[in-house]
Amino acid sequence: MAANMYRVGDYVYFENSSSNPLLIRRIEELNKTANGNVEAKVVCFYRRRDISSTLIALADKHAILSVSPQGEMEEEMENPEMVDLPEKQKHQLRHRELFLSRQLESLPATHIRGKCCVTLLNETETLKSYLEREDAFFYSLVYDPQQKTLLADKGEIRVGNKYQADITDFLKEGEEDGRDQSKLETKVWDPNSPLTEKQIDQFLVVARSVGTFARALDCSSSIRQPSLHMSAAAASRDITLFHAMDTLHKNGYEISKAISALVPQGGPVLCRDEMEEWSASEANLFEEALEKYGKDFTDIQQDFLPWKSLTSIIEYYYMWKTTDRYVQQKRLKAAEAESKLKQVYIPNYNKPNPNQLSVNSVKPGLVNGAGAPAGPQMPTLGMGRACESCYTTSSYQWYSWGPPNMQCRLCASCWTYWKKYGGLKMPTRLDGERPGPNRNNMSPHGLTVRHSGSPKFAVKTRQAFYLQTTKLTKVARRLCRDIVRPSYLARHPYAVVNSAAIKAECTLRLPEMPKNPLPLKQAVRKPLEIVVKYLEAHPCPKPDPPRSATISMGSLTPIKSTPILNNGSPTILGKRSYEQHNGMDGTKPKAMPQWEIVSKRSSDSGRISAPHHEEDHELD
Fold first, then answer.
1. What is the longest distance spanned by two Cα atoms in the chain?
2. Whole-model pTM?
């Protein structure tokens, strides 16, 4: 019961596709719609597969770099724990990394498929601990899907010596302070002044009165605070008191001099804080930004208030928390929270997945496994394709995976891993070596074929492609023929070609090309009709059938071979079987004994006439 109860703040799996991995979200709100359904307002988390490769490289670089106290980037050694991990665990650890985002979306609560755990990566927890726990993820960077950027999360726990303050040693009796006094704090108030508390309070009342009068004289202040009561309240704020005490300290705590400083020759001094400096529209923008980003003042400045300094925004925030508007908003949010759902019960999802592979005439547990009995209906049921992840050939259930034309499949364990973590258990050949799959049935081309345990029977097709040569490459072949040596390369296909040197040489020779035109060799080609007639008149001789060893050489008679005609065949080779074209699986002719080859050559050479020789060389 508790496992199916989901509350605000839980990290959960959402399913938006039967074949794609599950989404990872954090529940922010649970709202009931007008038709009675429950919708969850969630914060989005992204996997490594969801962001671009450029940002992935940036995230990997962030993992091995740190900022020194002087603000310079210094490279650190890779985490020794990460180095000691096997390749398989490194591969699986990448599936546990997530990227937080500020994006919110609403999803039906019925699409929840379970709970998970997402924590901020810190130095107090080992990386291997995430692999040891089921449904455990971590994040350290914030991803912006609109701007396509990655930022470091501001909420990291700063643990270590580099985050601690350096405490200076206590000075001994009579020891001088060797620190630079200009870099230390400036004294602004002396608690041991000759003034009493009553005199200081009287001076502060005078300062408030001067501030109220100054606001009455100021046109912009009279518009913002039209009444005397509002002007007096604004003059009683901390900024006025700080200015009064600072003035008293600068004048040596002499009240007469300090009062004269409050009202200089140009008029009374008007002191304003951030609450008075900000307009009503700026205050509304700040409240909207605070609702979206929370206390992330850097993002508030960048996206909502770029003309305000970061210091001004932070100062305004703490002053705004003392106003009645903040209290009213807090009461409204508390009332809304009371009316909203605190938790929701979602039963287990038991509907079959459309990606399951099954056959109607067989039980589902035996359809995809290797333990099914082979019969006339299923001769090779246990010889199906292996799992694309772990390469096992036996599983109680199989699932189709990947593009439909690839016809790949996963076992039940790897399918669950794919749905939860968005990857395969084993690393690919690009990440590391792994044993090859057990391919039991192969087509004539060496490609795997679907078996009777799968719903489709088809050969895996190959995509056709061609390499198109650029015009500059064609010119370089002729200009730099002495460097390219095409005849040599044709006989040595694995020889290394220095393309950079050929390109540089072609660039030098190209301006001289109009002066020294290349000699063109005119190729004379015979018409197609002549080639066809020649092939019909001189067909390839067929091998003689095997004869017994008692036949003498004199009894050999010439065999007249029927010419091959092109009766609508797409090729000029005539009709041949598929196996003969591919050179595989076809019935090969029996090898002739050595004495038969010698006797056939001698008999054939006796029948060849002189005009026939001339005709043979006619097309050379």
1. 147
2. 0.49
